[in-house]
Design a protein that fits this description.
The structure holds two protein chains of two kinds.
Chain A: H1 3-20, E1 32-34, H2 37-46, E2 52-56, H3 68-71, E3 76-77, H4 81-86, E4 91-95, H5 101-108, E5 113-116, H6 122-135, H7 139-157, E6 165-169, E7 175-177, H8 182-189, E8 192-194, H9 195-198, E9 204-206, H10 209-215, E10 219-222, H11 232-235, H12 240-245, E11 252-253, H13 266-279
Parallel strand pairs in A: 1-2, 1-4, 2-3, 4-5, 6-8, 6-10, 10-11
Antiparallel strand pairs in A: 7-9
Helix pairs in contact in A: 1-6, 2-6, 6-7, 7-13, 8-13
Chain B: H1 2-31, H2 39-47, H3 53-87, H4 99-111, H5 122-142, H6 148-172, H7 182-187, H8 195-212, H9 216-222, H10 226-231, H11 236-258, H12 264-272, H13 280-303, H14 313-335
Helix pairs in contact in B: 1-3, 1-13, 2-3, 3-8, 3-11, 3-12, 3-13, 4-5, 4-6, 4-11, 5-6, 5-11, 8-11, 9-13, 12-13, 13-14
Classes of the chains: A alpha/beta, B mainly alpha.
Pfam families (chain B): FecCD
Family (chain B): Belongs to the binding-protein-dependent transport system permease family. FecCD subfamily.
Main location (chain B): membrane
């Protein structure tokens, strides 16, 4: 790790510790409601089971949620105000790009609402875990989760072949993940070059099929969703030109649940990407 | 007699000119894209046994895309000319009288719900039945001798209904990607198809073109009024069914692959009408060629946009077509105050 990087992490840590300090005085919340898939997973991962009042219905959906199994035992909500009020939460955790109308309304009604930004890198993931753990009064648990994630990533990425090879995430509808995404991070950690980022694509954006063919990535990865259903988006992955390109090396499927939210599941995604790199 | 011959040759020249332009544009379309493609080398490599990247781009990406743009554009142009001639209404076109949105609805109900899964013709058949149904509804709503305004209003009502149903179906579809494809069905795109999509849309299209063929004389007679046309031996009921079916077949096939691409069927016949002496019969082949030209051009424009953007070809045709539509409305308002 570069000095600049460790410095950044250290400052971030300090900032977070100081920000979280006032909450330590009060007793940890006992009825926590999550209204976003990403905070669902953090909550299920870190909280004592008695603290969880409700998670969203998405948390139980195995394609999207890494914690689908764990979510089964809890009441689900659909991010509707009436529902949430009936749950009488003492803490509402939510996330995503924008603060949803529901969370803003609860905030105005005097409920305690904590918003978690989407994490697109390891620092963001660690920060979210620490913040959630601290809100729940479960710091030790948070550090344990972070430690396990880091150890898995280090174990998976040591002794990788020296030279990074070109790879690309090609998703239904012809979308790809460029720079600033979890996919990009995981590819780099596991010995791949992200062709999409090299083509100048930022974030989650469509990539021209011709560009994919010309760049000729060594390996294509994909995260399809809802097998057995049909749409033009899904048909895009069966394009004849793509079939020819992947004839020798079939696309490798790495499910959506690894990527929708930044969290410790990134370690497992890195393990799978690194395995693909070693097999190469 | 001599005047007639002169007209024919003028028509012949126009058809030749448009065909030549279309052929040139088609070749240009094969070399146009985000990445330059040396056509000669790509052609050469296409003939070799092992596919190379260049040959794949040529034969599996650009060729189907250009063919689909050409054929879908031709069908939309022809559809507009047929409907404007048949209904003797300058604003009639596949987009405005419901055939395109009906075709979208038909295709959407087949594709996302696995109806006729594995049967190649299920998708275009869905599009065709949707187009026919929507057109008949508009026709019944507006009545036989509808004024321009009544027809357009009936079209607006049916279009709104079709769009609402498309939205409903896409929201209910089992695929999580379905909802995001709303834009595609509303604006249309010819990108990202393989040759299989082209083969799927071809039979219905050809059948529709055949049906439309030879209806020119009847449409010419119809310009003199229904009574006169009937006295000249035109069976109006049969003509109406035949042309509705022709539009349903062509537009239904095209839209089930590309989504409903707006305004091609409205703009093209209008631009070309003065060039064929305002004869609806002569307008048919010319509009088909012109429609192909317009859609190919619009698609080439879309392809030259920078990476990471996803602009549908229908955005371009609508941006060009909507002001034109306004102009037409103003013009008809001046004619009939």
């Amino acid at each position: 790790m570069s000095p600049a990087r460790s410095y950044r992490i250290a400052t971030l840590l300090l900032l977070l510790l100081s920000a979280a300090a006032p909450t330590r005085a009060a007793s940890p919340p006992g009825r926590v409601v999550s209204t976003n898939l990403c905070t669902d997973q953090l909550l299920l991962l870190l909280a004592d089971e008695r603290q969880i009042a409700s998670v969203t219905h998405l948390a139980r959906e195995p394609n999207s949620s890494f914690m689908a199994e764990a979510a089964r035992g809890y009441p689900v909500n659909h991010d509707r105000v009436e529902e949430l009020l009936a749950l009488q939460p003492d803490l509402v955790v939510t996330g995503g790009h924008a603060r949803t109308g529901t969370a803003a309304l609860l905030d105005r009604l005097g409920y305690r609402v904590e918003h978690f930004p989407d994490a697109a890198d390891l620092e963001g993931i660690r920060a979210n875990i620490r913040r959630m753990a601290s809100l729940l009064g479960r710091r030790a648990r948070g550090e344990a989760v972070i430690g396990r994630m880091q150890r898995r990533i280090i174990a998976a990425t040591t002794a990788l072949p020296e030279k990074p090879l070109s790879a690309l995430f090609y998703q239904p509808r012809g979308y790809t993940s460029g720079s600033g995404t979890l996919h990009d991070l995981a590819l780099h950690l596991s010995g791949w070059r992200n062709v999409a980022a090299e083509e100048g694509i930022r974030g989650f954006a469509p990539i021209d099929l011709e560009r994919v063919l010309l760049a000729r990535p060594v390996q294509l990865f994909t995260s399809t969703y809802a097998p057995g259903t049909d749409s033009l988006a899904q048909r895009q992955l069966r394009h004849p030109a793509l079939r020819q390109l992947t004839a020798a090396r079939p696309m490798i499927e790495i499910g959506y649940r690894y990527w929708i939210c930044g969290g410790p599941m990134i370690a497992e995604a890195v393990e799978r990407l690194a395995r693909a790199r070693r097999d190469r | 007699m001599s005047r007639r011959r002169e007209f024919l040759s003028a028509q012949g020249r126009l058809v030749m000119l448009l065909s030549a332009a279309l052929a040139t544009l088609f070749l240009l379309s094969l070399v146009t894209g985000a990445n330059p493609l040396p056509l000669w080398r790509a052609l050469h490599e296409s003939l070799a046994d092992t596919p190379t990247v260049l040959s794949l781009i040529l034969t599996e990406v650009r060729l189907p895309r250009s063919l689909i743009a050409l054929v879908a554009g031709a069908s939309l142009g022809l559809g507009g000319a047929l409907l404007q001639g048949l209904l003797r209404n300058p604003l009639a076109s596949p987009g405005l009288i419901g055939s395109a949105s009906g075709a979208s609805l038909g295709a959407v109900s087949v594709l996302y719900f696995g109806l006729g899964a594995g049967f190649w013709a299920a998708l275009p058949l869905g599009g065709m039945s949707g187009a026919l149904l929507a057109m008949l509804l508009v026709y019944l709503l507006a009545g036989r001798d509808a004024s321009i305004v009544t027809l357009i209003l009936a079209g607006v009502a049916i279009n709104a209904t079709m769009l609402a149903l498309i939205s409903l179906l896409l929201n209910l579809a089992p695929s999580p990607y379905a909802v995001q494809e709303m834009v595609l069905w509303m604006l249309g795109s010819v990108a990202n198809h393989g040759m299989d999509a082209f083969w799927i849309m071809l039979p219905g299209t050809l059948l529709g073109w055949l049906l439309a063929l030879g209806s020119g004389r009847a449409l010419d007679a119809l310009t003199l009024g229904e009574e006169t046309a009937r006295s000249m031996g035109v069976d109006l009921v049969r003509l109406r069914w035949r042309l509705f079916l022709a539009v349903a077949l062509t537009v239904g096939s095209a839209v089930s692959i590309t989504g409903s691409i707006g305004f091609v069927g409205l703009v093209v016949p209008h631009l070309l009408r003065p060039l064929v002496g305002y004869m609806p019969g002569r307008l048919l082949p010319v509009s088909a060629l012109g429609g192909g030209l317009m859609l190919l051009l619009a698609d080439m424009a879309v392809r030259l946009l920078p990476a990471g953007t996803e602009i549908k070809v229908g955005v371009i045709t609508s941006l060009v077509g909507a002001p034109f539509f306004l102009y037409l409305i103003l013009k008809t308002r001046r004619v009939q105050p």
